[in-house]
Amino acid sequence: MPHSKPVVGIMACNRTVGVENAHAVMERYVRAATVYGDCHALLIPPMADGFSSAALTARLDGLMLTGSPSNVQSELYGGEGGDGPFDEGRDAVSMGMIECMVTLGKPVFGICRGFQEINVVLGGTLRRDVGFGAHKGGNGIDHHAPDRTDFFALFDNRHEVALTPDGVLESVYGRDTLRVNSVHYQGVDRLGEGLSVEAVAPDGLIEAFSANISGSQVLGVQWHPEWHTDTQPESQTWFRMMGQALRGMPLR
What we know:
CATH topology: Rossmann fold
Strand order of the largest sheet: 4-1-5-6-13-12-11-8-9
Structural class: alpha/beta
CATH superfamily: Class I glutamine amidotransferase (GATase) domain
Order of helices and strands: EEEHEHEHEHEHEHEEEEEH
Radius of gyration: 17 Å
Number of helices: 7
CATH architecture: 3-Layer(aba) Sandwich
CATH class: Alpha Beta
Number of strands: 13
Shape: globular
Largest sheet: 9 strands, mixed
């Protein structure tokens, strides 16, 4: 009997479809994970009522936290206010899932919002002023395209990131920089406990981190490797790393 593929849980969001609420994941996340991670996928509903993170994590080999139009609620990292939209159901479920996966020593991978969620769960904080550094006349870079940009053009907003010497990403990619897409208004302020910086933007913003917490391999990126993965070898590599981690192999 052939060895079965591992199963990754993929975090869904609350979305409005017509007049009803729906639990949704963009297909590009699922396809990239299953094709290049060579795994099966189980979508995780962002509905805290009656949900048991502990029961589900026991059935998964790993967790992937997706990007989303919604932002993490600032109250969860000691902040106030902030711009929505927010998704309280996703916050509750995703953060409970991260805690349980780390406790069980299972891998956790994060993309954009998911990257920020990991940081918050591990005691870090977020900043909410990174969208238009250059457009506002500052010395920073634009981490998000201007408002009213066509959806498909959003992911054309790119910049380089410097990979940390001897870090996981530098070791895997065999280079010291990557050019990545950038579609976010928020970013890491204080880094969470146990996380190591893997990549930094030209303005100093943390763009990737990793950790090994009691056997739980953690890797998060602020960019979107699931976007046009079929034409991006570096993105394919990221999902292959996830597939390795799901099988209990080290990221390096």
